[in-house]
Every structure is written in C-alpha cells, then in structure tokens.
Design a protein that fits this description.
heterodimer, A: Helix Hairpins, Heat Shock Protein 90, 3 domains, five-stranded mixed beta sheet, three-stranded parallel beta sheet, B: alpha/beta, Rossmann fold, 5 strands
C-alpha cells in the first residue's frame, strides 16, 4: 500500500508521517511532499507521483485542490489548507482509508482503531487546551462581529432620535444627509450580514454553485459597478483584453470574489490613485489581475491575508471597518471552481492579486447538477 | 430639564459617527467642534478650550487612552471633563477609561438622551 500526502508545510508533513507510521503499524510506504495551495504540479514532482502509481501527466499543471478532486482515492491526499494540526490531518487520512473496499483489511482495521482511539480521546476532552483555544477564538470572532455591528447601530439610533425629536429643526440639507447616512449604514450592515452568512455556508460545505456562461469582462463590469455603488466612483480602470471568450462559472460568486479584491485594493491605495483590473486567457484558464499602488502587504502578513477574520496591521492602524472576511470568501469561491488566487508585492510598491479560473474544467468542478459543495 | 449650552469637542475617526453626534448636539443648541483623530483632538482641545470632550478610544494615530493622559497632563486642558464614547465594551476597557479620569463611559450604540444627560452632568459646576 502506498500513500502520498501533499501538505504545504514541510515540518507538519514530517509530523503527519510520524503519526501515521506509528498508528497504522503496517507496511505502508509513505511519501509526504510539500505543495502549496496555489502551486501547480511541476514536472519535478513527476517521479514521486509515478512511484505511487499515479498518472502524473493527468495532473500536471493542476494545483493541490484540483489534484484532490481528480484523484478521488484515499491513497493520495492533498491538504492545501494547512490550518489543521497534524493529528487532525492523520485522522482525516485514517477515516478516508476505512471505507475503501480495495484496501487490505488489516490496514483498514488499523486505521479504524487509530480513528476510534483519537476520536474518543478528543471527545473525552483529553485536550482541554484545544477547547480553551477554540472558545477564545470563538469569543474573539464574536467580539469582532459585534464591534462592526455597533457602527451602523449607532447611526440608526442617532438618526431615529433626530427624526423623531428634532425633525422640525432640520434643514433640507441635514435631512438629506441623514437619509444618506442611514442608507450607507444599512448597506454596511447588509454587507456584514452577507459576509457572515457566506462564511457560515463555506465552513459548513453548504455553499452551492449555480453555473452559467458569461464573459470575464461581464463579471469585471458587474464587480466594478458594485464597487462604484459602494462609494468608489472613478477608482477603477479596466484594461482591454485582446481576446474575448466565455467561462462557465457561478457568475455571482466570482463577481463577489473580484469585488472583494477590488474593495481591498481601493481601501489600501491612495484615494486619487487608480486600481487597474484586466483579464486574459492563459491556456485553459481565465486570469484576472487586479493591481494597485497602495502601501502593499507586509511580508509576514502576505501568507495570512486569505485567512478568515484576519486584519492586517494596515487595517488595524487605520481602523478600517470590516470583518476581515472578504479575501477569505474570495479565495473559497475561486477554489470551489477549481481555481486559485494569489497576492504578490509589486516592485516599487503596491500589490497585484491574480486569480485563475479553469475555463474547460469549470463545468466539471461545478457538476452537471449545477451545484457543488 | 433646563438646557444649558456647551462647547463640545467630538473626537472620533468615524465621520458618520461625528456627523450624527454633531446634529444631535447642535439641534440642542450646543456648539460642536469636530476632530477626526487623536492629534487633531489634542490640538483643538488646547486651542478651543471646550466645556467637555467626547472621545472615541480606537483611533488610528493615537488612541483615546493616550489622548486623555495627555489632556490630564496638560494644565491648560486637565480640567476639561472627558466622556468616552466607544465600541469597547469589556470591563477592563471600562475600568481603564475610568482610572484615567473619564467623567463617563458611554457605549455605542448609545441613547442620545443619555449622551445629553452625561454632558450636562459632566459640565455641572463642582463645589
């Protein structure tokens, strides 16, 4: 039996290997290799896959998520999101081995034992520090959400008082200002609620995709229009593409992903500067590129910006509103389509976000039923 | 309730909050001075000598705790009552605000009538 595990983090990969070797106690050949979430399989890793009986040519050029989709067998497991600790990864591997009828029964039995022991241990609260950590994390997230909701609530409370108690003293200009402020606060609240709901659906695996044919340009125009309605008029410049083509995606979700990136770019670049967005075709992928001239992302934060509820030092220093969910949702929706997203520092300042969406395989990722989760 | 008119400095980096507080206070006859960050707040406090300061805590340049320390450390502004108006709700935050000499601590979203009452209380002549 050969098992290949792909994890971005080398140290974690070694720990998973140790746990599995100890737990399964059988003649299992393990290979653990690093593969970043957005990294595509290169020819240098061909031999490794070939040793484990996989047709490497079939998965050349795919990233870890797409490999996981394509190689739907327990012997190859990719963990593109490495937030899970090594014990949890080992548990997931063990649980995926058990139902595979083609496997040696001893291996399945061993995996089951390992799983039972660990699940019981976890349920018995053998790791109170983990529970404590989860409780603290939950508390932190609730505090962030509550803090964000206080702003629109303050605006509603204030203006409802003004309109009830002081309406006769208001000039038409102040009255108009009040209505505009209430409208903006409502939009902000609706945006917060939508982000929380989207995150809940993503986390529970219940986010469905509804595919349709659409041009990348149409998606960009919708995203830009949405951002202009949020108060970023004139901030975006759309580059013309040399090639027109159609992709098959959930247009709403990809628009949301692009909007989140545009929102991020517009917030962190000077108000008078332009955020440039363009697209092109590269092989079997539609590539979207968003470039800004902002302060850039700190090196130590660039790996964290797609994590849920992450707020970078620039956001904290400038007290930027928001939950820190936009880029996380963007990444999740892009990856649901079998795509990838990355952020890079630009020479001379600013950031460029690049999104790749498969053109041909987007149908497969979404599935014939029109939904995937 | 007898309505006295005061000069109120509002220090908050959120323009939407500054605006709504400004309308509430000005329609009650108070004079409103607006500052959008801690440094501007300190400068206006020294120059305008307001009767009371409404101060946010989380601000991008210097936070509200630092602003009140500097206000209390400056003989020209030490006597001006400061009311925190903030989204920070933890007991520690409230305790810290009080220990730094704040006259009151108001949590967003606040009841405008409470805000008006606290301003009146803070500006009452003592002794």
């Amino acid at each position: 039996m050969n098992i290949l595990v792909l994890i971005p983090d080398r140290d974690k990969a070694e720990k998973v290997k140790e746990i599995l070797e100890r737990a399964l106690r059988l003649n299992v050949e393990f290979a653990i290799d690093t593969l970043e979430a957005n990294e595509k399989l290169k020819t240098s890793k061909f031999d490794l896959f070939a040793c484990f009986g996989f047709d490497a040519k079939e998965i050349l050029g795919l990233n870890a998520f797409a490999i996981q989709e394509k190689e739907a067998r327990p012997a190859i497991l990719a963990f593109p999101q490495s937030e899970e600790d090594e014990n949890l990864i080992a548990l997931r591997l063990a649980s995926s081995l058990i139902p595979d009828e083609s496997l040696d029964s001893d291996l399945r039995k061993s995996a089951l034992e390992f799983l039972n022991e660990n699940v019981s241990e976890r349920e018995a609260g053998a790791k109170p520090e983990a529970k404590q950590r989860n409780a603290e994390e939950l508390s932190r997230l609730i505090e962030i959400a509550a803090h964000e909701i206080r702003h629109p609530a303050t605006v509603f409370k204030g203006y409802s008082y003004i309109l009830r108690e002081q309406a006769s003293e208001l000039t038409p200009e102040i009255f108009e200002e009040a209505l505009t402020s209430i409208e903006q606060a409502s939009d902000r609240l609706a945006h917060l609620v939508n982000e929380l709901l989207d995150t809940a659906r993503i986390e529970s695996g219940k986010a469905d995709l509804c595919s349709k044919e659409i041009s990348p340009e149409a998606i960009i125009l919708r995203a830009v229009r949405e951002m202009e309605m949020r108060g970023y008029e004139g901030r975006f410049s759309i580059e013309e593409s040399e090639e027109e083509f159609i992709i098959h995606v959930d247009a709403e979700k990809i628009k949301m992903a692009i909007s989140a990136i545009l929102d991020n770019a517009a917030r962190y670049s000077p108000p008078e500067s332009k955020v440039i967005i363009g697209y092109e075709r590269s092989g079997n992928e539609a590539i979207f590129r968003v470039s800004d001239t902002g302060s850039g992302i700190r090196k130590d934060e660039i790996g964290k910006i797609f994590q849920p509820f992450f707020k970078g030092s620039a956001a904290i220093e400038r007290k930027m509103p928001g939950l820190g969910l936009g880029l996380y949702i963007a990444k999740s929706y892009v990856e649901m389509h079998g795509g990838w997203i990355e952020a890079k520092q630009k020479k001379g300042g600013g950031t460029v976000f690049v999104v790749g969406i498969p053109i041909e395989s987007s149908d497969q990722a979404i599935g014939e039923s029109g939904s995937a989760s | 309730m007898e309505e006295q008119k005061f000069k109120v400095l509002v220090v908050d980096d959120d323009p939407g909050i500054v605006k709504v507080i400004g309308i509430i206070l000005s329609t009650h006859g108070h004079e409103v001075i607006k500052a959008h960050n801690g440094n501007e707040g300190l400068e206006l406090a020294g120059r305008e000598k307001p009767d009371v300061i409404l101060l946010d805590i989380m601000m991008p340049d210097i936070d509200g705790y630092e602003v009140i320390k500097r206000l209390k450390g400056n003989p020209d502004t030490a006597q001006i009552p400061v009311i925190f108006v903030t989204a920070k709700t933890t007991p520690d935050a409230i305790q810290q605000g009080r220990s730094l000499g704040a006259a009151a601590y108001i949590i967003k979203p606040f009841n405008p009538e409470t805000l008006l009452e606290k301003i009146n209380e803070a500006c009452k002549p003592t002794g």
